[in-house]
From TrEMBL:
Superkingdom of source: Bacteria
Native source species: Sutterella parvirubra YIT 11816
Assigned keywords, A-Z: Cytoplasm, Ribosome biogenesis
Pfam families assigned: RimP_N
InterPro entries: Ribosome_maturation_RimP, RimP_C, RimP_C_sf, RimP_N, RimP_N_sf
Predominant cellular place of this UniProt entry's protein: cytoplasm
Name of the featured protein: Ribosome maturation factor RimP
One Gene Ontology biological process: translation
Role played: Required for maturation of 30S ribosomal subunits.
Keyword match Mitochondrion: no
Compartment(s) of residence: Cytoplasm
Length: 185
């Protein structure tokens, strides 16, 4: 039987050895193991990619005697989670939702600070384990439905100037990209 951290390591090595980017592994109720993979290649992850990785991991789990009932391999989707420093570096310039463990205090924030931030990821710098994220906080107006998109085109109002903040990557509880859907086609 493999420990959770060791399982994460062998799955990561296997997925990356196949030429994909390992995003995360989750062990869920009723024996479900969910593995999320990505690629920087044009077109993203296909169904065939997921099947290929699933077949390889099924063999790996048999050899390593990993207990599981079901294996699910998928792409991260449009609201891709940002887990590692390399994710933050890769998606610099994109809209991001980040939740911190504790409120961040900055000029332009309420006195108590903000724990949830939405805005544009500017970049990440620093040594491994001491990375610092630079982030422009502002109220993100993203069309989530065709009706929202039509309303936004009518209004076209400019929001307040962004508030530039920095925080340690270690202070991030969770983060993901904000989906920007194009309803015009």
């Amino acid at each position: 039987m493999t420990q959770s951290g060791a399982l994460n390591d062998i799955v990561e090595r296997t997925v990356e050895g196949m030429g994909y980017e390992f995003v995360e592994l989750e062990r869920l109720a009723r024996g479900l193991v969910r593995v999320t993979i990505d690629t920087e290649a044009e077109g993203g992850i296909s169904l065939e990619d997921c099947e290929r990785v699933s077949d390889q991991l099924s063999h790996l789990f048999t050899v390593e005697d990993v207990p599981y009932e079901r294996l699910e391999v998928s792409s991260p989707g449009v609201e891709r989670p940002l887990k590692r420093a390399r994710d933050w570096k890769r998606f610099a310039g994109e809209l991001v939702h980040a939740e911190l463990f504790a409120p961040l205090k900055a000029e332009g924030f309420p006195e108590a600070g903000r724990r949830r931030l939405e805005g544009r990821l500017i970049g990440i710098e620093g040594e491994s384990g001491a990375e610092v994220v630079t982030f422009d906080y502002f109220e993100v107006q993203v069309a989530r439905t065709p009706r929202d998109a039509a309303r936004a085109r009518k209004q076209k109002t400019e929001g307040a100037a962004p508030v530039r903040v920095t925080f340690a990557l270690a202070d991030v509880d969770r983060a993901h990209l904000i989906a920007q859907l194009n309803f015009k086609g």
